[in-house]
Amino acid sequence: xxxxxxxxxxxxxxxxxxxxxxxxxxxxxRIQRFISxxxxxxxxxxxxxxxxxxxxxxxxxxxxxxxxVPIGIALVADxxxxxMLVVSSAVTLCVLVYSIxxxxxxxxxxxxxxxxxxxxxxxxxxxxxxxxxxxLFNLYVGFEIMLTASYVLLTLGGTxxxxxxxxxxxxxxxxxxxxxxxxxxxxxxxxxxMNLAELSVRLADLPAGIRLVLQLALLxxxxxxxxxxxxxxxxxxxxxxxxxxxTAVFAGLLTKVGVYSILRTQTLxxxxxxxxxxxxxxALLSMVVGILGAVAQTDLKRLLSFTLVSHIGYMVFGIxxxxxxxxxxxxxxxxxxxxxxxxxxLVTGLVERRGGTTDLQRxxxxxxxxxxxAAVFFVPAMNLAGIPPxxxxxxxxxxxxxGVADGGAWAYVLxxxxxxxxxxxxYALIKVWNLAFWRAAPPDLCADxxxxxxxxDADQDDSDEETxxxxxxxxxxxxxxxxxxxxxxxPRTMLAATMALVALGLAYTVLAGPLTRLADRAAGELxxxxxxxxxxxxx
Length: 539
Description:
Layout: H1 9-24, H2 29-57, E1 60-63, E2 74-77, H3 79-106, H4 116-132, H5 136-154, H6 160-191, H7 196-202, H8 208-226, H9 235-238, H10 244-268, H11 276-295, H12 300-321, H13 324-355, H14 366-369, H15 371-385, H16 391-406, H17 409-438, E3 466-467, E4 485-486, H18 492-510, H19 512-528, H20 530-537
Antiparallel strand pairs: 1-2, 3-4
Helix pairs in contact: 1-2, 1-4, 2-3, 3-4, 3-10, 3-13, 3-18, 4-5, 5-6, 5-10, 6-8, 7-20, 8-10, 10-12, 10-13, 11-12, 11-17, 12-13, 12-16, 12-17, 13-15, 13-16, 13-18, 13-19, 15-17, 15-18, 16-17
């Protein structure tokens, strides 16, 4: 199957649609929403086709403009990049539908058509470009497209909290971008090429010391973007302030682009890594420190942000092992985690909408008030915690088996750290369940399950929500003397999009056999390097 003609579509179509939406303007909101949904549906279909072709026929390669290596920019879809493209396309489509539902319910105050949709499509184009890039500089371009859009999305609404969080995020991102440019300059000075396939050949001829310096430079850059410990301090303060769709897609995808870049460069450019033990230490610290931070949180958004940092450690664990089982486990776990983490942040948006807050001390009784919302939270929460037979358990089991098969002291330490992290993840999520869903509603909850709410620097509530006063309670008795808002019911579109992602997470369990075999084939292709290099250089 020749699917090379489809390679530019995941990048070009969202960019074209973003420009088209700016041209259409705000006069036709239904057309705006239709364009976004249609484009991302086409991107998903193209991604599935590329995955089938890459798995059956090997890496699909296209050189932009027909220029040969090393002049042309190569777009490459092997099993790994095509799988990441399929998962990211499915997730971004569901998040878009969720945001459309939220925008319709809120009259587009939290996700305005004029800003959110074009920026979101540009973000999708940047993510797709990073997955498909066969050129180190084009990988940088993909990151910058993605990050430029993320600056806009993170500060939507212009509240003080979002501006503060956005400032931190922008400073860290700009620093990592500068370091990336420096690393690219060093690589080009040492090898004379940016093409990843050529680099895999030329780097082998360099002295070991120079290779190590280049490897450390790239690992530092991608470590910041992946939010591994100790380069993750920016994440828990940046993500929770954004609207739910933005936080969800950031948590699900942006850090995984960094993990993908680590996986790609470590296997293709620096095989037989000399940094296995430092990577294992980073993986262990990411898992343990991240989950301890999650356990200490009383806000659901921050708790999930710390679990995000923690579970990045599992992926780095598999990369550090550098074995077929370890890399396969990392590939499987990345696909699983993109879906489940995104789902939990979308559920958090629903919880905030139904309960008026994400503060666990002020939530309660949601299982009685909204049983469907409770179920939608419980399934992905148990999946993230690794309860059998869900995909989270299968992914962790694969990584732990690879660690035991390695047999090294560090590998066994990581196996123990992985088990402890999984148990603490379960503890943190059970705490959320007990406080927000299972216990009786606290006194601040109204009779219909709504909560007295502050309008601090967090998101402003929906303009069409009803302002109420509970019977027998004066306005001054409300929390911080502020208004009380309520949402009688959750919008069906938002619920449907969230439930679709829950179903996708469950599909990983049902289809665990084929998905595990695909991850294993992807790992074999990554570690052998030959299929990728030959496919690119043959053109």
